[in-house]
Amino acid sequence: MAIEVRHGAVTEVVIDFPPVNAVPAAGWHALAEAVTTAGADPETRAVVLAADGRGFCAGVDIKEMQRTAGHEALLAANRGCAAAFAAVYDCPVPVIAAVQGFCLGGGVGLAGNADLVVASDDATFGLPEVDRGALGAATHLARLVPHQLMRTMVYTCRPVTAWELHRFGTVLEVVPRAGLRRAARRVAGEIAAKDPVVIRRAKESLNGIDPIDVKRSYRFEQGFTFELNLNGAGDRARQRFVDGG
């Protein structure tokens, strides 16, 4: 179980936490560090954020929270998610998310903050947070779908397909799973062929004109997760999930 990094002009950062890439608290911090380190390397011209296994990311490891006494695991996971999402957003070079299978919760946070998304034809995106007694990553989902669809997805926990996002223009390409990593590297290579100084300034300038501060917005959402945990609703929902209910 690890965050793997494959260095090069196009650096790959790969999520690998079997069986479903439910990322533990330490894993989110490791992911943040890997993306930050890749972007700080002057030889890196683009980053592909990918995953091994059944799906891109199932979000946080809820079972870790429930088997850990107190609030430490919850707090660590929330801080880790914030750090990882921010690392993708702040990475000085473009980040291309290569999404296969399910992209849930924290996975949407990563994909929504990426510069580009390439997805496999079996990819789905969703926020099951309401069913888990938590809130968060609507900030990032709003970068992928229209506003009222985002609200519908939050309230109902319904997922959408990569093909639907492709119609919105927020997924660049939908490809067979076997060709996903190759497609992401192809787009990253096109970017990497540009003048690296200009590309880094382009990334900085595009972040500077964003209408929403994604880091502040996400932390605002997280405050409601803390409230739900304090009043007991969060713990009840997480335990239902662990119990299979």
Spell out the blueprint of helices and strands:
Blueprint: E1 2-6, E2 10-16, E3 22-23, H1 25-40, E4 46-51, E5 59-60, H2 62-67, H3 72-90, E6 95-99, E7 102-104, H4 106-113, E8 116-120, E9 124-126, H5 138-141, H6 147-156, E10 160-161, H7 162-168, E11 173-175, H8 180-192, H9 196-208, H10 214-230, H11 233-243
Parallel strand pairs: 2-4, 3-5, 4-6, 6-8, 7-9, 8-11
Antiparallel strand pairs: 1-2, 9-10
Structure report:
With 245 residues, the protein is an alpha/beta fold. It has a single domain, classed as 2-enoyl-CoA Hydratase, Chain A, domain 1 (Alpha-Beta Complex), CATH 3.90.226.10. The chain has 11 helices and 11 strands. The strands form 3 sheets. A 6-stranded mixed β-sheet has the order 1-2-4-6-8-11, with helices on both faces. The chain has a 3-stranded mixed β-sheet with strand order 7-9-10. The longest helix is centred in the N-terminal third of the chain and has 19 residues. The two termini are 27 Å apart. This is Enoyl-CoA hydratase family protein. Belongs to the enoyl-CoA hydratase/isomerase family. It comes from Actinoplanes sandaracinus. Keywords: Lipid metabolism, Lyase. Pfam families: ECH_1 (PF00378).
